[in-house]
């Protein structure tokens, strides 16, 4: 526990274990089975005029105790906030009050009593009965306040260490209840995405997590083994190839919100296990999809937050306006003076070295172009922007551009320098797809570990005919980061991946 001596914590645990045993001797079950509640802290405070003098039952965790002989004031925290209750020996009886003296901060209790307001005007519950529901053996880190010599407020024992908060999220949620708000908004965002897609006649489906071949993205997989089949399987890195098989099979519009897994580094926008929403719709292209994305983001903003205007990392962002549209290769030429389509790998590497980026020997031309985009353009994309028309080397699953040689019909959406979504006019030519897969295979042989595998079954599916299709992928974690103005993906994942605890 942060800022608390280990021996001190151990002494507190021993004392609480002694209290627990004493309660058992008195016939008190320290870990109750159930407790009927009819109110919560928020309801009582918001409806005080109607509830004053009436009985309520409420349960929660003790966060503060002030004992005064034959009476005590206690702050109780439930899922909705905090409320004070007043406990008096004369009301609950000597036995119950004596047992209460063995309760600690962190214990979960249930109380029944009537609503009233103290002399200081604080809405409270005057307890008639109290029941222990779970004894807290390990003390929770409650921040304490003091005044220094200069008269400034000083906070001690605050549970503020980021790594510890991620590792012990259960404690974080107890002592920093405002953290819950981010995750409540996350749930609402996902709910509104579903509502929006359902309204637009998309069908929610499920595809395999364990796959004999991984595909749909440039990433390294997690590998496992199936004992009965005696075969290697991969945890999916994307849903794309299975969802497009469903378009081949006759579904016109499908989507999946799922966990994907990529065996890659961890930073403020990457976690090995993450949530992705992918959708595919027949007879549409990437131009249609850009408008669809604009409308979906606007819908989420209005329904969850009641506005389209946000302050994100100090920038005013308006999701109510059309997004900017910028060609990747044209912008790269404008910024670097280099025509990346005709440039050689050596020329691209030389340009990257100018920006203090040292490429890996096995990097493909597509990867070099992508790195150059990241270092010269991406961070400057503050307002909602679609970067369009990528080099074919970067997008082995996207349809070739109908007007420009060497490009594909693809866009990525960026806000405050972060990639938020990725979309294609999907490649539905099986001959072209097979050739692209085989080019990726060569890149793998040359050292690109993230190049796509050759999925001949997917090629076979395309040979039966897939209609013109538009596809979209949205990283849910990054989307929540954006709308809640969080700077790290760990702040929007309840249990992010961490290094092993020492």
Question: What is the structure about, briefly put?
Answer:
This protein is α+β, with helices and mostly antiparallel strands and 502 residues long.
Write up what this structure looks like.
This protein has helices spanning 6-25, 41-46, 48-51, 89-92, 94-100, 162-167, 169-175, 179-199, 240-248, 286-305, 328-336, 345-354, 365-376, 430-445, 456-463, 476-484; strands at 55-68, 71-78, 81-88, 108-117, 123-134, 144-147, 153-156, 203-204, 210-211, 223-226, 231-235, 253-261, 273-282, 309-312, 315-318, 324-327, 385-391, 407-415, 418-425, 469-475. With 502 residues, it is α+β, with helices and mostly antiparallel strands. It folds into three domains: 6-134, Nucleic acid-binding proteins (OB fold (Dihydrolipoamide Acetyltransferase, E2P)), CATH 2.40.50; 144-175, no CATH class; 179-491, 2-Layer Sandwich (BirA Bifunctional Protein, domain 2), CATH 3.30.930.10. An eight-stranded mixed sheet has the order 8-12-13-20-19-18-17-16, with helices on both faces. 34% of the residues are buried. The model has no long low-confidence stretch (mean pLDDT 92).
Secondary structure elements and their pairing?
Elements: H1 6-25, H2 41-46, H3 48-51, E1 55-68, E2 71-78, E3 81-88, H4 89-92, H5 94-100, E4 108-117, E5 123-134, E6 144-147, E7 153-156, H6 162-167, H7 169-175, H8 179-199, E8 203-204, E9 210-211, E10 223-226, E11 231-235, H9 240-248, E12 253-261, E13 273-282, H10 286-305, E14 309-312, E15 315-318, E16 324-327, H11 328-336, H12 345-354, H13 365-376, E17 385-391, E18 407-415, E19 418-425, H14 430-445, H15 456-463, E20 469-475, H16 476-484
Parallel strand pairs: 3-5, 8-12, 16-17
Antiparallel strand pairs: 1-2, 1-4, 2-3, 4-5, 6-7, 9-11, 10-11, 12-13, 13-20, 14-15, 17-18, 18-19, 19-20
Helix pairs in contact: 8-10, 8-16, 12-13, 14-15
């Amino acid at each position: 526990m942060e800022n608390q001596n280990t021996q001190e914590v151990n002494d507190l645990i021993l004392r609480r274990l002694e209290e627990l045993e004493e309660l058992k001797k008195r016939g008190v079950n320290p870990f109750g089975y159930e407790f009927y509640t009819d109110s919560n802290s928020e309801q009582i405070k918001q409806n005080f005029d109607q509830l004053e003098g009436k009985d309520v039952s409420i349960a929660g965790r003790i966060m503060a105790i002030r004992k005064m002989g034959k009476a005590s004031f206690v702050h109780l925290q439930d899922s909705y906030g905090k409320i004070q209750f007043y406990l008096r020996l004369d009301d609950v009886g000597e036995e119950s009050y004596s047992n209460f003296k063995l309760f600690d901060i962190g214990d979960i209790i249930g109380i029944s009593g009537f609503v009233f307001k103290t002399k200081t005007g604080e809405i409270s519950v005057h307890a008639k009965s109290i029941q222990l529901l779970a004894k807290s053996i390990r003390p929770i880190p409650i921040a304490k306040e003091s005044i220094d010599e200069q008269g400034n407020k000083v906070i001690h024992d605050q549970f503020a260490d980021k790594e510890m908060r991620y590792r012990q999220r259960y404690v974080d949620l107890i002592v920093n209840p405002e953290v819950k708000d981010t995750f409540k908004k996350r749930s609402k965002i996902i709910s509104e995405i579903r509502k929006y897609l359902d309204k637009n006649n998309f069908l929610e489906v499920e595809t395999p997590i364990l796959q004999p071949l991984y595909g749909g993205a440039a990433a390294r997989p997690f590998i496992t083994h199936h004992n009965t089949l005696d075969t290697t399987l991969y945890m999916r890195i994307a849903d794309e190839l299975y969802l497009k098989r469903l378009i081949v099979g006759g579904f016109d519009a499908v989507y999946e919100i799922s966990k994907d897994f990529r065996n890659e580094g961890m930073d403020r926008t990457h976690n090995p296990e993450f949530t992705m929403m992918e959708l595919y719709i027949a007879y549409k292209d990437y131009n249609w999809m850009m408008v669809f994305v604009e409308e979906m983001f606007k819908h989420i903003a209005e329904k969850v937050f009641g506005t389209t205007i946000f302050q994100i990392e100090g920038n005013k962002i308006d999701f109510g306006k059309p997004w900017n549209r910028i060609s990747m290769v044209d912008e790269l030429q404008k910024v670097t003076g280099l025509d990346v389509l005709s440039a050689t790998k050596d020329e691209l590497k030389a340009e990257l070295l100018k920006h203090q980026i040292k490429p890996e020997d096995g990097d493909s031309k597509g990867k070099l172009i992508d790195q150059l985009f990241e270092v010269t353009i991406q961070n400057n994309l503050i307002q909602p922007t679609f970067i369009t028309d990528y080099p074919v080397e970067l997008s082995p699953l996207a349809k070739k551009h109908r007007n420009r040689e060497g490009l594909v019909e693809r866009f990525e959406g960026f806000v405050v320098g972060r990639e938020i979504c990725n979309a294609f006019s999907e490649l539905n030519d099986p001959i072209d797809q097979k050739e692209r897969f085989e080019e990726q295979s060569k890149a793998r042989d040359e050292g690109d570990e993230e190049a796509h595998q050759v999925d001949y079954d997917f090629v076979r599916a395309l040979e039966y005919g897939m209609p013109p299709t538009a596809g979209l992928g949205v990283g849910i974690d990054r989307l929540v980061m954006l709308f809640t103005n969080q700077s790290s993906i760990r702040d929007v994942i309840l249990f992010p991946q961490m290094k092993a605890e020492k």
